[in-house]
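Teaching note: in complex prediction, the entire set of molecules is handled at once rather than each chain in isolation. The prompt given to students was simply: 'Predict the structure of this complex.' The entities are:
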Amino acid sequence: MKDYIGTIVKNEKIAENIYAVTFALEEDVKVRCGQFGNIAVGGTHLLRRPIAICKMEGREVTFCYQIKGEGTQILKTMGAGTRLNVLLPLGNGFYVEENEQKIALVGGGVGVFPLISVLREYGATKEIAAYIGYRNKGAVCGVEEFGKAKRFVAVTDDGSYGEQMNAVQAFVRDVENGNRPDVVLACGPTPMLRALKAAVEEENIPCYVSLEERMGCGIGACVVCVCDLTNGKRARVCKDGPVFNAKDVVL
Amino acid sequence: MANLSINLCGVQFKNPVIAASGTYGFGREFNELYDIGQIGGVSTKGLTLEPRLGNPVPRIAESRGVILNAVGLQNPGVDYFLENDLDWLKATGTVVIANVAGKTLDDYSGICAKLDGRVDMIELNISCPNVKSGGMAFGIKPETVEEVTMYAKKALKHTPLIVKLSPNVESIATNARAAENGGADCVSLINTLTGMAIDIERRRPIIANNTGGVSGAGVKPVAVRMTYEAAQAVKIPVIGMGGITCAEDAIEFLMAGATAVQVGTANFTDPYAMPKIIKGLNEWCDRHGVANVADLTGTLQLNGK
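The expected output is the structure of the full assembly:
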């Protein structure tokens, strides 16, 4: 982990309300899929924006972000050449065991972007199926990346792109048809993760979920971004996570 | 090279820059970024006798120039700290200040007794605005400030006592004097100001606790004023804090009467904020011909005087 000065290479809209920003860093950085960066947008914003790393190529890092509040509104206006502080890599990231050959990715909303990083890291060595849910056709993104997976099922809430269902339903249907993965990696809205957790528990499939929470420091010092664990304790999403074994967390 | 070292209640600090409680954990995470032995001191995450889970999330919100937090004293308990963190933190070479909170007077004396002689200083948190049982009840009225200070002091034979004052009070000067009368060796201020931020789409406060403690650059003028008033009111040394982001901010507090400063929220904006402030203090002193940073304390001259 280090605080880099990132120079924006490009910053563009990739779907309805979703932007992708690429920074050139001062040096090559090794990151694990599912890790995140903490971006300082400056001005009167004292908190950084923790955003999942979507892609890391040499010294260029890409984050995809949803326009949600003032910070991301400011970020989207920043053009090429703008220099921002980017603290990374943060968090534990996804980890796939040697003997887990078949991976299912289940994602929704902005949760699809850390899953793209999984595809980039394990796409060549593992058999990956991606089940991605979007709100509607306008929100569809990452199709080119997910299209590289062995199987890619895109669905929407309103049926305007792919079938009308959610990502968990698409995943469960495949499992019921005998397409059972060795491990499930997921990121998305909490109701989606909750439904997924129930489904994988029933099927007894290992599942790791990446969580999101409002953060302070982003490095584990301030204990602001906690989640409840099934053992009654609390864990820091930024440092102990953001990826947790689904059976360990209360969703 | 200016001499940045200071002496606070007999404890020698390399420099007057201390990490504020709750923003720095027990130092381990920041030590992954830089050697925290270069920091004057670390005030630990607020410790209680028993472990605490703290408040539900969300625990943080942002408003222009400030943040609000309501962590609610989540901590592993004082015994865990003594067993797992203290020796490590001491070995870094920084001054170790244990920040402590409690529900009752006995909690305060109990936790102080456990820490006496083990840490360099103890900071009494009687001003956490986020927990009913976080000592805030003691921090408002001067009578209870004095009483809880006396209780804590009685349990301490070796370790100097800092009392951290709440700004959410009628008179900071009166409460600073109350702490001094109770036997405090030092006061620190300000803790956070109680505030609220609302998500207008949901018509609900952003923070689960509804209210949170306001900190960050925007509170600095309030904090400087209160540091000045407290320093005028007492003979014991004062540690100033509230919105310090750079060396120049720290110097304002020193001039207002502080012997040392604490840095909190700035650690979130820039994780290297404290080493930068220390470097900046040295440069400012050199540029201004100040040989000892301690010479800056209380040098403020009011207008019209």
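Point out the following to students. The mean pLDDT of chain B is 96. The longest strand of chain B covers residues 95-100.
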